[in-house]
Design a protein that fits this description.
16 helices, alpha/beta, globular, disordered N terminus, Aminopeptidase
């Protein structure tokens, strides 16, 4: 083990000398990188993923403990508070909704017997209207993928009035290899379930039945069940329209409703698709527990060293929440990888910056955000209420679920290529011997599934830093198998627990890469932007007015 540690230190030293020779980073940045300690990250992850923190549920005791722990670390590092009223905490007003088991939903065909849905098995649903009781008796309209995208000349709704109706729709988006049509194989936001519920509500629908299919969603039905099986949180007093019934149904259940799902999918893959009112109604009585509460983002700042630039900042983020406890506390979703690891990296980067002999020219903002598992809620609130204007946040780097399984030789930084900073990213990755992989699962829409997306919507150039599939001592196939095994057996499941044999040297390498990127961004002569024509370019321009 000592020989391995010595070899890692030697390789790090060689890397830092290379960086110095290429004038890539100042000495203070190199010292910050050299100070990264994998065992400190291990300690953070071990504590955050312990049973004591009860799965760090949003608005639950364990989540509040996690926020307090992170704030305490920031204070110990000597970072300035950047939250509300001179504190490390930014208040996020939320409301928790739990669907009562006595709620009923039935499919009433024009001919034949009604079909009842079993909550948690056939269907998972929430009443987003924040009402304690809602009634639905409405016709069902199949609307394909539920997408209205003028820029792609695609409208699944056509001129159909869907107000007050229940919409049956498909997850994902029309398949394509054409990068000019829904970006080809890469999933756009139009394919995400969040967009579909939002668009249906904007059009006045009463509810949505979203058909789950593993190949289309990129995760299994058990992930939907665990993610939606308990309390779900929403931003309180959100003025956007909401559905009385936001629901997923299993593929098996969809096939019991008197139609052929595969034929529905095939019919939806054409621009000529027309919405179809089905010979059925949905009758539902949805009872909900509604719990207003507050959670907190944890924010800290390292002031920049340049008096002219310190009002601008680089943002580092990771979400600290997970799924909490289920079954009256009998089952804990510890979330060690998701996202204990991201928090461990965030805290170690914060420690490294705080101990550096000099701060970078621009300020560094650290954000541990709440409510990611509930729909990116904490980062959405932070994007709307940043401690400094969004137009002055140059770059956001996010860390989410990085299994400590070895030293990566490749990285997944999907979305970095959308920013003007990408040439610097590519150069630093090469210097650190990290090959940039293309998105390994473009159909999964991962860019729209983590907190950097909230910052991108606010106009801030943003992406997550993730490991690729190539690890030291292994072929890429090994990394692929590790990803698949995690998704199948631990992702959003109780099995995502801390393992004593984890190797945090790889997470340390990712932290060093993150420091190098952030420091380089903090030292650029001009603010970073989006590539011309990017979907977030307009938001960036608006934020800087």
């Amino acid at each position: 083990m000592r020989k391995i540690i010595a070899l890692v230190i030697l390789l790090l030293a060689v890397t830092l000398v290379t960086l110095a020779q290429q004038n890539a980073l100042p000495m203070a940045a190199q010292k910050a990188m050299a100070s990264v300690n994998p065992e400190r990250m291990r300690a953070h992850v071990k504590f955050l993923a312990s049973d004591l923190l009860e799965g760090r549920g949003t608005g639950q005791r364990g989540g509040d403990l996690a926020a307090t722990y992170i704030a305490t670390q920031f204070e110990l590092f000597g970072l300035n508070p950047a939250g509300d009223n001179g504190s490390y905490f930014q208040r996020v007003p939320l409301v928790g909704i739990t669907t009562e088991p006595q709620s009923t939903v039935a499919w009433i065909p024009a001919k034949g017997e009604p079909i009842s849905f079993t909550q948690g098995s056939d269907i998972v649903l929430m009443d987003e209207s924040q009402s304690q009781s809602s009634q639905i008796d409405a016709p069902v309209v199949f609307v394909g993928y539920g997408i209205d995208a003028p820029e792609y000349q695609w409208n699944d709704f056509k001129d159909t009035n869907v107000r007050g109706k229940v919409l049956l729709m498909l997850v994902n988006e029309p398949p394509s290899d054409d990068p000019k049509f829904f970006l080809g194989k890469a999933l756009t936001y139009y394919g995400r379930w969040t967009y579909k519920f939002e668009e249906a509500a904007r059009k006045g629908a009463a509810g949505v039945l979203l058909i789950h299919k593993t190949e289309m969603a990129s995760y299994g039905w058990q992930v939907v069940q665990s993610s939606w099986g308990g309390e779900r949180s929403y931003l309180r007093d959100d003025p956007a329209p909401k559905l009385k019934m936001a629901a997923w149904i299993s593929y098996a259940m969809a096939n019991q409703l008197g139609g052929d799902v595969e034929k529905l999918i095939a019919s939806a893959n054409s621009r000529d698709f027309q919405p179809v009112e089905l010979p059925a109604r949905i009758k539902a009585h949805i009872l909900s527990q509604v719990r207003p509460f507050e959670s907190e983002n944890v924010l800290a700042m390292l002031p920049g060293s340049d008096a002219k630039l310190r009002d601008q900042a680089i943002l580092y983020s990771a979400h600290f929440d997970h799924l909490g406890m289920r079954d009256q506390g009998a089952v804990i979703y510890n979330g060690a990888v998701d996202n204990g690891t991201g928090c461990g990296i965030l805290l170690e980067i914060a420690h490294a910056y705080a101990q550096a002999p000099q701060a970078p020219p621009r300020s560094i903002l650290f954000a541990a955000v709440t409510g990611e598992e509930q729909g990116l809620l904490g980062s959405a609130w932070l994007g709307q209420h940043p401690p400094i204007p969004a137009g002055k946040i140059e770059l956001a780097l996010n860390f989410d679920a990085l299994p400590p399984i070895g030293i990566p030789e490749s990285i997944d930084i999907t979305g970095a290529e959308r920013t003007t900073f990408y040439p610097v990213v590519a150069r630093i990755a090469q210097q650190l011997h990290l090959a940039i992989e293309p998105d390994p699962d473009p159909g999964g829409g991962h860019y729209y599934r983590s907190d950097h997306f909230s910052f991108a919507r606010a106009g801030i150039p943003a992406f997550s830093i993730g490991q690729g599939v190539k690890f030291q001592g292994h072929e890429s196939a090994w990394g692929v198998s590790q990803q698949k095994d995690y998704t199948a057996h631990r992702y959003h499941q109780p099995g995502d627990k801390y393992q004593a044999n984890w190797d945090f040297a790889g997470n340390a390498k990712i932290a060093r890469f993150g420091i190098a990127l952030g420091w380089a961004a903090a030292d650029t002569p001009q603010l970073i932007g989006w590539q011309k024509g990017d979907e977030f370019e307009a938001a960036r321009e608006k934020s800087q007015k």
